[in-house]
Amino acid sequence: MEEIMMLNQQTIAVIQSTVPVLKEYGTAITGRFYERMFEAHPELLNLFNHANQKQGRQREALANAVYAAALHIDKLEQILPAVRHIAQKHRSLGVKPEQYPIVGRHLLAAIKEVLGDAATDEILEAWADAYGVIADVFISVEQSMYEQAESQPGGWEGFRPFVVDKKIVESDVITSFYLLPQDGSDIALFEPGQYVSVKIDLEGNEHTHLRQYSLSDAPGKPYYRISVKREGSLAGKPSGKVSGNLHDRVAEGDVLWLSAPAGEFKLETKGETPVMLLSGGVGLTPMVSMANTLAERQPNRRAAFVHAALNGNTHAMRDAMLQLQEKSPGLSVHYCYAEPTPEDRELERYDKEGVIDASWLKTLLPDPDAVVYLCGPVPFMKTMFAALQSIGVAESRIHYEFFGPAGSLAQEDLLAPAGSK
């Protein structure tokens, strides 16, 4: 377990006194922080999802993290699971130790700028001390992750070229890419549920774009598979730059640059505890990896694969999961369509129409003590999280994954590990 340097009681008291202010002004501070930092260091835009910046998701996530750090400043060891989750993302993006002082400098300047005279020298000094301690923990955790990623069999440092061996259209909105290492050598194993970062340079764009995609097949194959949703495709919005590029421009034989697999959202395969794999939309990708792994390693382990989609046209890997069910005695597969097509109804492609609710979930849960893995759009996950708790599933048995900046479904703890991630 990582050690955290203790702050003195005066510093802790000062930090705790800022909690109400951070709750009120947190997003204003982090919004100004990003503006300042990118103005001074535009090269750091290469590390950030620009869409999340524009939508405010990154700003809100950082505000929540700063608020939670202040809230738990007297027991920082409690945020270590969340630190490890964020550190996994940092490692997959290539965040380096020398970038932490830059962040600290602009964060303190943003606090001073937004709060004005309320940000006294005593408060700024206390936050400087606290940031230094937290940054040291991140640097230490990430260093061990970098070393592990590079030293493991088939591992590597930074980004490695992979050739698109196959490109398979899975639905109207999701396409899978089968990726082989360009040098033909071994690739690192991963845990079902983990992801890779893909680095792409887009024509006409000054900055590199990085996106994280869950690995959607079982580990141990000679390839990695990612299954990518064309963002914006169902809401009448312009297609996401990176997902649109992957769908429209990247072809078989092209090269993509990948980080080594990362992530704290992982299927536990050492025991036989029953599981529910619960997903919505493209959130099925890590669940497909988990289901395929169970079929290979633990075919008799009781597992319920429950997926919500708009309809059969948008539902990826529908038949593949039904075929998996046929050869896995412990697996049951269940589909819910919000707006089934006439063909969906005629062919009985789904089990429930509308939305997944608590009463239906209760009938599908393979065991009262089952562990649940949850992934999908944030509103879907919030609804499912509440539904699961209402039928008696303890929060400690619900593990979840956010696609995008870290968050929490537990309202009382804004820095809960994203998937106790």
Automatic annotation (TrEMBL):
Single Gene Ontology MF annotation: heme binding
Catalytic residues in the record: Y100 (charge relay system), E142 (charge relay system)
One Pfam family linked to the record: Globin
Binding site for heme b: H90
Chain positions of site Involved in heme-bound ligand stabilization and O-O bond activation: Y34
Listed InterPro entries: FAD-bd_FR_type, FNR_nucleotide-bd, Globin, Globin-like_sf, Globin/Proto, Hmp, OxRdtase_FAD/NAD-bd, Riboflavin_synthase-like_b-brl
GO biological process: cellular response to nitrosative stress; nitric oxide catabolic process; response to toxic substance
Residues holding NADP(+): G281, V282, G283, L284, T285, P286
Enzymatic reactions: 2 nitric oxide + NADH + 2 O2 = 2 nitrate + NAD(+) + H(+); 2 nitric oxide + NADPH + 2 O2 = 2 nitrate + NADP(+) + H(+)
EC number annotated for this UniProt entry: 1.14.12.17
Keywords recorded for this protein, A-Z: Detoxification, Dioxygenase, FAD, Flavoprotein, Heme, Iron, Metal-binding, NAD, NADP, Oxidoreductase, Oxygen transport, Transport
Domain FAD-binding FR-type: from-to ranges: 157-268
Known cofactor(s): FAD; heme b
Domain Globin: residue ranges: 6-143
Residues at which FAD binds: Y195, R211, Q212, Y213, S214, F402, F403, G404, P405
Site location (Influences the redox potential of the prosthetic heme and FAD groups): K89, E401
Region (Reductase): 154-421
Gene3D superfamilies named among the record's database cross-references: Globins, Nucleotide-binding domain of ferredoxin-NADP reductase (FNR) module, Translation factors
Cofactor note as given: Binds 1 FAD per subunit.
Entry's free-text remark on domains: Consists of two distinct domains; an N-terminal heme-containing oxygen-binding domain and a C-terminal reductase domain with binding sites for FAD and NAD(P)H.
Its biological purpose: Is involved in NO detoxification in an aerobic process, termed nitric oxide dioxygenase (NOD) reaction that utilizes O(2) and NAD(P)H to convert NO to nitrate, which protects the bacterium from various noxious nitrogen compounds. Therefore, plays a central role in the inducible response to nitrosative stress.
UniProt family annotation: In the C-terminal section; belongs to the flavoprotein pyridine nucleotide cytochrome reductase family. Belongs to the globin family. Two-domain flavohemoproteins subfamily.
PANTHER family: FLAVOHEMOPROTEIN
Name of this chain's protein: Flavohemoprotein
Organism field: Paenibacillus agaridevorans
Source taxonomy: Bacteria, Bacillati, Bacillota, Bacilli, Bacillales
Gene from which the chain derives: hmp
